User: Fold these one by one.
Assistant:
Number 1:
Amino acid sequence: MRKKRKAKTQDGGKGLDKQCPPKQGRVGPPSPLSFHSPASLFSSLIQPMDTDQFFREYWEKKPLHLQRCDPPTAAYYHSLFQLSDLQSLCSQGLQYYRDVNVVRCVSGKKKVLNKQGQVKDSVLRKNLVQDKATIQFHQPQRFKDELWRIQEKLECFFGALVGSNVYITPQGSQGLPVHYDDVEVFILQLEGQKRWRLYSPTVPLATEYSTESEDRIGCPTHDIILQAGDLLYFPRGTIHQAGTPVGVERSTHLTLSTYQRMSRGDLLLDAFPSLLLDGSRCEVSLREGLPPRFLLGTSDCPHIRAHLASSLRCLAEGVESGALEVRSPLMRRDFLLNRLPPYSGQLLTPAGRTPTLEDVVCLRFKDHVLVTVEPSQQTPEEATDPAVIVLHSLTNRRETHMMGACEEEEEQDAFGGLRFPLSHLQALQTLQQAERLPVAQLQLPSAEERLRLVVSLWSESLLLVVEEESV
């Protein structure tokens, strides 16, 4: 589990100077994708498929192959990542295992050809040409601005982390053995061709990665040649293998993956402790003691199972009726504190002038903000009355996205959100819902508290004064 981050008090302002500017500018053909909103981005990504139809017929159900035959889309896909990008990035200190894996499937097994230390361009060329190996480049959105732009919007759309890998495979070769993944997968064919064979899942909607032996998987349900500009989707658990056909110099594809540990079971694991605690306050049967010697395993008490089943039904009824609230504090924190920051060509700093009581204001980056109620301290021993915590991802570092930052980095970049009294909850929720709002209309007891709230949000770059001419 990731280390918890400390929350700041409401009148503390944390600078955003650690957010690095983009490493590479956008150069290339015009984008066929719409970045107007998260929904428009996803809609344009899967066009001509309708979004509603996709979720109704394909999402978590079956694969989808979109053949484009569209030169502008193929040109744009090719610009997202090329072998030359990887070669130039080698000068930035890429490391084997952390950034790059060199692999080849030999007799149904994965053979890893990684060296130690820093990746060299000359060695990668040898891996491709002589070793017929696949180059797997981890999380290219750390370096390529357009991928940052796409994945940040997709994280807003799904409300879940979105990672990516680039795979470069020479002709007549396969990088990975037959396997299935624990993520929803979108394949964008950037260059060349690749043959994909998909098989029925042995573990539908799998929760972990696993290889499969070819004698167990039967015949492919899909046998597809992806061309540049095509898109392939398949659900987690879909068994697959892919290789570059003979006669094609190389294949380059981008894998976008999401929904890892985002199942209803994961939600229950996160929510159940608070559900049980809340239910115990009103259900006396949950507070009754266990039989003597139960923990020693020497007491046969079949009636305990009946009591537990009855208690679980009471909890379920409370959830269904709304009497018990389903909270997912760890999942939400993990997402907000590990997702990409907003796509920006410059440092994120407080915008405009400092708000006053006479101003009209609006909340910025709403898709990157979460207002939650949590214990005011971080450990049960210190826990006191609940407090309102405003979490956001503006201070997240693009350079470590999906890379599992080390403890030292987590400590340096620790940010647990702004903390406010519980009385501020309604005012914060109103700011979230309103397009713009006069500071004077914030439902707080005093003018001093209204001003302190908006200045605290402004100092975090979360709030903007709406000037009169733009109203």
Number 2:
Amino acid sequence: MNVPSAGNDLDMYQSQLLELRQRLLYAEKENKKRSHELSSALDEIKHVVAKRMNSTTNHTDDTKWKELNLTRKLPVHFTNMYYYLPHLREYEDAIFPNVIFGQQRTGVSLVMGIPTVKREKHHYLINTLHSLLYELSEEQKNDCVIIIFVAEVNAEYVNSVAESVKTSFPREIQSGVLEVISPPASYYPDLSNLKKTFGDSEDRVRWRTKQNLDYSFLMLYAQPKGTFYLQLEDDIIAKPDYIQSIENFAAKQSQEWMILEFSQLGFIGKLFKSEDLPLIVEFFLMFYKDKPIDWLIDHLLWVKVCNPEKDAIHCEKEKAKLRIRAKPSLFQHVGIYSSLAGKIQNLKDKDFGKNVLHKTHNNPPAKVDTSLRTYQQYTLEKVYKGKDCFWASAPVAGDYISFTFLNPLKVEKYFFRSGNMEHPGDKLFNTTVEVLPADEMLRKELVDNGSKFNYPATKDGYLKIGAFENGIAGGSINQSIGKIQAIRLLVNSDSPVWAILSEVFIKTSEN
């Protein structure tokens, strides 16, 4: 009997790896040829969407890509899915997402993908979106799109998530910053008889296999929308300046890269060039049943740059040229309950650093007062002096926060920010900013005759000069009002959430 030698096994192993490498290089070459076809398909999408938008004023609720009649002109990387997921041949629309909310925004610099699934205990999605949108400028919002991929086939659950997002972010849904999509039920193959590997339970193997399919679907949908694709998860918080930091880090790379990492955890904060996504997804689909997504990424890099005839140290150096880590991390994992039932995960990125939960300004001397019930040590005086944030239980109509200056002042500008990175949803809603003129004669005139300025007057002599919008209030003050005795934030309706004031800035001619 002939027993294969270790040398023969090694030769066979190297031969298989080289063959796989050749297949990947061929796929990469083919990918470059597809750009024209993809561009044509995208132009057709834009044309059809524009035509539809001109013919109706209805929102794009329940729009499906299959309605755009593109099934006969699929980009090649879509058709390749049929090789790895042969069951799709029976369902012509299985690779077209259900677009529950979306304006089909394209041509942006950054596309962010967030897959979300039903969890047994706690949901983090809305807080994650609050964190991502927290300090984005209008310019940044106009140059990005965040895709929420509800990776479930239960229509009732999918619609409940979509409505929750729409209720929390109506402006972002309407403008197209946020999109909510879901997969057709026919997209997923039978996951009931998967081979158990690496000591994982049947449930874990099914979970990670579906996760690979979810990432693949989301990436292919996102690919034609922008220049870069950022992979995120639904249970994170982001640094306030994350988009600018990503742009700066990407711009200073002098070598060809495949992945820029802005978190050391799992598949969070991984930036790809959109042009690379078809190749990456094709690799995922080749091995979606075999290994978890982060292992597949590492194997893809191995196939691209590692030489089987050289050692592991050389391989790691070569992979590091394609996979570049940014520090400090821009995203932190906050979820405890995993999407895998029963799994608890207290994963934290040690490179994220300490969260900055308030901002400090040199405000003029004032007496502070509030009708809100303060939570623990988070007092109003601390946020005014820039020492901490102010945190209070849910406001009701008539509640107020006031700053009465020790000496009347000429106030030029004001800025108030509610919510913070860890609790971005704890904002002030339906709250007005009001000023009390120091001139008593002027106050009496306002009470008796109303405002002679372009601001509405209250019955107690205040002028309504602004209001909170998406948790922020700021602006300049008409200098003809004269010196100001006090500034008041007045809550006009009951709030369902607690309130945090994380920044107070009152600019006078003196500071």
Number 3:
Amino acid sequence: MNEMKMKMKNETQSNCMLCNMKQLVFITANRMLTLPLLLLVFSIPCFPPCVSTASIGHFHVNQRIRKSDQAVLLPTNNNMNPSEVETLFKIMESMSSDHAWRISFPNPCDSASSWPGIECKPGLNDKLLHVSRLDFGSPPNPSCKSTATFPSLVFTLPYLTSLFFFHCFTQTKTNISFPLLPHISSNSSSALQQLSLISNPALVGPIPPQISSLHSLRILTLSQNRLSGKFPVQLFLLNSLVYLDLSYNVLTGPIPPQVGSLRNLVGLDLSYNSLNGSIPETIGHLGLLQKFDLSSNFLVGNIPDSIQNLNSLVFMALSSNKLGGKFPQGLEKLQSLQYFIMDDNPMFIPLPEVFGKLMKLEELRVANSGYSGIIPPSFSHLTNLSTLSLQNNRLTGEIPVGFGSLCHIYHLNLSRNMLAGMVPFNSTFLKRLGRNLDLSENPGLCLSPSEAYGVKIGVSLCGSNRTASTIQPFHKSEAAPSVLCKSFFLLCSILGTILLPHFSIFHLVVSVIFPFFTSFD
């Protein structure tokens, strides 16, 4: 029996090491060799994250968060509080049928028991061991049975700091609920710092107002569920939150102005819901915000001028709403901005020159929004630009000559406009972009015969009725960065959740991790 336990333990450790090594290779291959990211590798779940998010990504990455590989020094006395043990067994029996938990693991926190999905730590004021983390979902963590419903008893575990449910509630409809026992005080869950419920299609109903009792919560990820209703005002009493992800649900109503009270937020993702109304001016109070995603809702009005106060902002996505009118004043103050994604909004204004002043921009996507006028020559100054999507607008004039000098550009889509003149790209540039270059459906554009040898881009040769393209640009490529970007930030949602015990690392990582995964096409 002891040999079998040791074998299982060694296999688990080997799997964890293999997962971390795969992530290290992945991150290294994508040039993220900063100290915070190297540290991050050894606490990522296998989002897959092994982000998912980055999987962030919805970047679709099935990312899993699992417990830290760092060894926990446990006292030789493996005793636990009997009531805590009984609560744990009740939770496990209601959630998973993987084992006969009471028989197979009579001492849950025993370091030799190899109980999957659990982490224990010694108490500060006693010699007992306490459950500090629970993970449910894909292996090696306990799977969830088809009849599983949300176990409100988890909120009675006094030392629990991290709780994660991935693809658990899939068949039996259930709600997020809190215990109604009269002896359970509002402070009973104050130790919980990270709560993640991801990809649970049977998790329905509103976000309960009792969520405000989780005073220490720093990361709240309720993504890819079927949660509905309006925001509970109590949610904005969680002043310790640094990451809030409610994406991919069916939430309705306006974004409450109280969102501005979450002054410690670094990431805010409310994308893929049914939110309406305008973006509140109070969003400008979130001075630490680095990721801001409101894509795919029904928001109207203008982007508020207060957005200029978000000088730490790295990623902003507002695609697929009903935003229109003028751009906010002071947009050029967002000098940390690397990703601006605002496709599919009825703007119907000239393409703003201010984008040419955002020198760190790597991705600019403003397709299908009714922009008119010329492409500002100042866009040629965006030397870090890798993706520029301006398709399906009403742009006129010539392509700026300086675009041919954008050495980092790998995806350029200017199709379905009214551009004219000679394409200012040499054959080297054209071959480098290949099918990631789309200039089609601009009848006034033509390509110099001297640059057309062996190049197929879908425009006519100058001075000829012949077309220079028998191989049309790959139209689907224009959507790839957007899909990857959504997947990973929904999945960075996931990434962030495991770093609360190392908050300083999370704060360093978040400014770097959001941008990079959107360029992995």
Number 4:
Amino acid sequence: MRILPFSWVFFILFCWILLSLEIDGVSGQCLRDQTLLLKLKDSLLPITPKSKKLVQWSSNSSFEGVTCEEGRVTGLDLSNESISGGIEGSTLFDLKYLRRLDLSYNNFSSTIPARIGDLASLNYLNLSNAGFVGQVPISISNLTRLVTLDLSFPFYFQTSLKLENPNLRMVIENLRELEELYLDGLNISASEKEWGQALSSSLPKLRELSLSNCYLSGPIDDSLAKLPHLSVIRLDGNNLSASVPEFFANYSNLTSLRLSSCGLNGTFPEKIFQVPTLQILAAANNQLLHGSLPASMDNPRNLSRLDLSGCQFNGTLPKSMEKLTQLVYLDLSLNFFTGSVPSFRMSKNLSQIILSHNTFTGEIPSSHWEGLMKLVNVDLRNNNFNGSVPSSLFALPSLKQIQLSNNQFSGQLDELPNPSSSMLHTIDLSSNRLEGPIPPSIFRNLSILSLSSNKLNGTVQLDMIQGFHNLAFLDLSYNDLFVNGTGNDSTWSTLFSIRTLKLASCKLRIFPHLKNQSKLVYLDLSDNQIDGKVPNWIWHVGNGSLYHANFSRNYLKGMQEPYSLPNTLTILDLHLNQFQGKIPLPPPFATYVDFSSNNFTSSIPYSIGINLSWTIFFSLSNNGLTGRIPESICSASYLKVLDLSNNSLSGEIPECLTVMSQSLGVLNLRKNSFTGLIPDAFPVNCTLETLDVNGNLLGGLIPKSLANCTSLEVLNLGNNRLADNYPCSLRVISTLRVLVLRSNKFHGSVVCRQASGTWPALQILDLAHNNFSGTLPSKLIPRWRAMLEDKDENQPELNHLRVEFLQLSQSRYYQDTVTVTAKGLEMNLVKILTLFTSLDFSSNHFSGPILEEFGQLKALHLLNLSNNALTGVIPSSIGNLHQLESLDFSRNNLGGSIPPSLTNLTFLSYLNLSFNQLVGSIPTGNQFQTFSADSYVGNEGLYGSPLPNRCSNTNKSRSDETSFQQGIDFDWQSFYSGVGFGVAAGAIGTFLMIYFEVMRFL
């Protein structure tokens, strides 16, 4: 058969195509470098099961991750292959035509081979997260064609790579073509000029710079302004300790600026907010950085991420933010922003909006949230928002978290629009003003629900709530709810996922039936009406994994026998119940144990220390415990707070307790019957902040070693039998705030030879009912700086003395208390405000004049010098004590007239000048119009209102003192409000009424 010429042409063309395909196939297998690749594979054995590329390499198949041109390897990507071991001697460095090398995300655990510099054709090198350690080799500087260099390492690992010798300049000085440099996590340890000038002088084409967590120091050198092409700057996690340079706003191509956690300070330049190309701006966690947002925030129209959390920004959010249509992530939390929040409904891509911990105000209209179909998280906690909770939030299809706690939202909650299809897993509306019943649909599909501290009412039937299958956290505490916890095994079986259940103050009368809750580990049933005994099955919930049990403030009388506390229990709070008999032994790993304010009458178990091996807080106060303190308690080496006060314990204080003060922060033994001496064994590293042994039978001297406790704030030795001089040896304790020595046998003068360093923080000093003598201490008064400062009574946050002992919990702290005497009454300060100050030198043998220096104590609230032998006149400087509320100079030998300056004391609500030798007219005006004649009796030369006869003498004498004291009819309201004189008087009065427990002085 004859073949036509056309067919021959077609046949030849077909064969040529086949031959071309065959040649390309060989080329695709990098035929000329195939041997090198197979040897490289052999050097990287064993290949792990996670390998997706190397495992496929063979002479009969393609080489995954390899790019070839003309039979030569030009690209090699072995990322995420879990390669371990070194590559120093491999054939990798014989691939002379290699332009791209990616070894990221492996586990080499070796230094970067020096031969890396042999790959002179590289323009892309990625060794990030590859497990390399040690010094970066100088040979990298030979890679002069590099455009991208990535040696970054996760900041949360120990820094393994470093640039010390050679340093940064030496490594990059020849890399003139470099455009992208990523060295995150490397230990560069360079100052501002070293790293700044090295970059600006060596890398003229640099576009992307990432040096986060590199141990760089600031400030940021101005030479960086010479890099005009920079578009990405990432310097997070360095100790720059400087202001933000304004030249950042001059980068015309800037798209990303990340400066979080850099110790930045000063004012953030507003111009940076207006860079038109900006897409990402993050300057979070710079606590000294402040500033405000400019009125025009619509210039960076492509801004997608703005994170200024944890700074000191203030002012309002400009309405122009509504035009940020590309915004995806917004975090302005932990600042001082005020005013209302603009609508972000035009930001259709918004997924996160976090504005918590500011002072935003106003309502959040429901229309603000419409159309935000991608919104996942809304966090508006800790602000001052009001109005109703926007119902449109609950209708957003992608929303998973709503956190609106600690605001002033009010009104009722609506039913969820589509609970079955909702993606919501967290709703936190706690600490608001919400009222009405809880809609049943709100429980459906949720994992976390917190509605505590509102005004919600109605009845909640726990066993009737459906859709609990995902619920892991439920908090209904502190509302006006009645929670019915009755049920049986079958009705409660639906709650199988619950891990945390908080039902404090829910009017519970019985323990909810929780037997089947196999995952429950946190249970709070405090402040309810539960009586009877704690059922023994409660200790088996969570399959015996319960770690938090708070049954305090109920009417519980004991434990159902037999019971066994789970070893997992770390917090056990039974205080303020009616438990009787023996105290339960704490579980062996408990950190917080509070059995206070019950009716326990046993002795403390001899071996209790074994059960306190991990305990930080242990309180048995306000019980009827008897016997001695067992020395085994001293083996509790982690103990920070030990409170055995208000019991009937006796015997001597074990010496090992004072030795424990090398870790102990609070030792409270007040109101027991301890005898003997206070052991003189406080170690040189004493950490005590509170020592209270008031109301015992202790004698002897103040231990000299107590001066080792240089962190001491409260020292209460009152109502004992101590016989010593004024404790000048303790003047080295600069932190001391409260010193109570009353009702002992102290004697001598109160003058220290060296007045320097004598308690500058002292705010309460009580020396009453001792045998002190001599003149009042003129040299000490200027040293008490806390009493000299005229504090603002209207300060928004009122602090009180307390000892923090659990770093991870703000709700766990020890509250100091002290008893002061004023107006013939004893007052127990349950909370000692740091602004409260008091001096009580009464019932001693002080003589001489009242010092003019007392007029310097402008922060003083209570001053009692009564029942001494003071002479002279009342200094007019006392009128400078504008915070004074109680003044008692009675039963002395004071003469002269009452200074008219005392009428300036507009907060004064109690005055006692009785039984002196005062003469003349009683001043009038302000508070003096409110005092009765009892304030002046026993001064035969005084006249004027309120005494009955202008010029006649009173018929009362010093023999009337007893009836005078017993006949005080105390007007609390006038004391606290100051009869309307000044806003601050009412404020401090309110605080004192909250914190004082009052009883007649007997």
